[in-house]
Amino acid sequence: MNLFSIDDLIFKNKTVLVRVDLNTSYNKSTRKIEDHERLREHSKTINELSEKKAKVVVLAHQGRKGNPDFTHLDQHAILLSKYIGKKVFFINDIIGIKAKNRIKSMKNGEIIILDNVRLLDEEVENKTGIEHSKGKLVTNLFPLADIFVNDAFSVAHRSHASTVGFTPVLPSAAGRIMVREWSSISKIESETCSIPPVVYVLGGNKPDDCLL
After folding, report:
1. Which tens digits make up the pLDDT trace of 69-124?
2. What is the torsional sign of CA 201, 35, 210, 4?
3. Which residues contact 146 (CB under 8 A, 6 or more apart)?
4. Which helix (H) or strand (E) holds 55?
5. Of 20, 57, 110, 170, which one has the greatest count of Cβ atoms within 10 A?
6. CA distance 31 to 15
7. Hey, what domains does the chain have and what are their CATH numbers?
């Protein structure tokens, strides 16, 4: 099964909402986020959309409410700017007038990142895509956008507003990381990988949060 990817859409002159996972380690003593490979990898998808002359609006999160690593995304914008090689503008807003006006004023190839989507309580509610499409995040942003790109494979298992809410209302596609991870998983299901003996090694930072 092939995913509908960014190769299948035209992005020039389009406003694109792209969900990425920039969540990274946070140093409590310095109040600084730590650089991570995922920022470098996501910067490639973001840059490609920019090079295709899209107006790129980045959606992401950092930490969870109540945890020490829950913070704004201004530092993430600085690191993305470094890897992309052009300014990524941080907008200290998500669905308010400041965010909306900034999106409306964007030029082709420009990149902005809105603030931590988990500042909105509804973001982490476990709902269907249709239910989330009627929430504040989606109803405020989708009228300003033309396309939704999901490149956040590592949070795609969560039925959150920013991961599933835009797909019912916008043309949607998988980003480069999403396609790459999907392709890797698909190999497991292939005939050559199903011949025993087969050993699967699974890992992650939060098994207690992911395993049922």
Report:
1. 999 999 999 999 999 999 999 999 999 999 999 999 999 999 999 999 999 999 99
2. negative
3. 14, 15, 16, 170, 171
4. strand 55-59
5. 20
6. 33
7. 6-210 (3.40.50.1260)
